[in-house]
């Protein structure tokens, strides 16, 4: 099982954002979509999520042809850089929102929210409002909310980009630890080489709407596919 992107192209007017992209993203792993700004990372992630339609090509998610499925039928969870929490709702209600709109029984929601708050160490903060959390705690709430509906795929677009360096580092470790516990197929977008190398099992390097290389952090360092990858990764520190 995997996410299979096959021959996906996307234009915005005359501009080619994705140029016949094919890539296989392995199931149950933590994959970084890494590349410079404007490279097409968010566009590819949005196409996987169903928030954007490719002009051509196919998207398969864990064995299901998702090319024409709307986002709500893809069973994906999202976390974005600027987390849109419901400001007037408690942390608990934010985390349980996806279950509530799916009309899950109250007891089930309560139990699942308890479990998730524990997972992201926010069990003391359930009754607070999002504004009463720190930036890092808010992104942990976002992770819990995205996981609430047990998605087959978790997608994160520069989830820690807006935070300061120390909190970012902390959240990287969180993401890694969470992934090791829930093993959900995860794709996260980043332009930060160090973040990708430190956190990901697998890295997809994308630039100018094309895939430059796919491999483990070691593969990329030991055998960069081309000059672009070598220069982009920079000197080993
Ligand atoms: P990344 O996430 O790697 O920074 P994006 O996927 O957001 O890159 O964007 C790739 C390119 O496509 C950029 O040059 C961006 O300006 C362009 N682009 C993205 N979305 C749109 C849009 N809705 N309309 C026009 N151009 C867009
Ligand atoms: Mg982006």
From TrEMBL:
Keyword list, A-Z: ATP-binding, Nucleotide-binding, Sulfate transport, Translocase, Transport
EC number: 7.6.2.9
Source superkingdom: Bacteria
GO CC terms in record: ATP-binding cassette (ABC) transporter complex
Domain ABC transporter: 3-233
Record carries keyword Transcription: no
Keyword Heme in annotation: no
GO molecular-function terms, A-Z: ABC-type quaternary ammonium compound transporting activity; ABC-type sulfate transporter activity; ATP binding; ATP hydrolysis activity
This protein's name: ABC-type quaternary amine transporter
Organism: Dactylosporangium sucinum
Full-sequence portion shown in this chain: 1 to 237 of 333
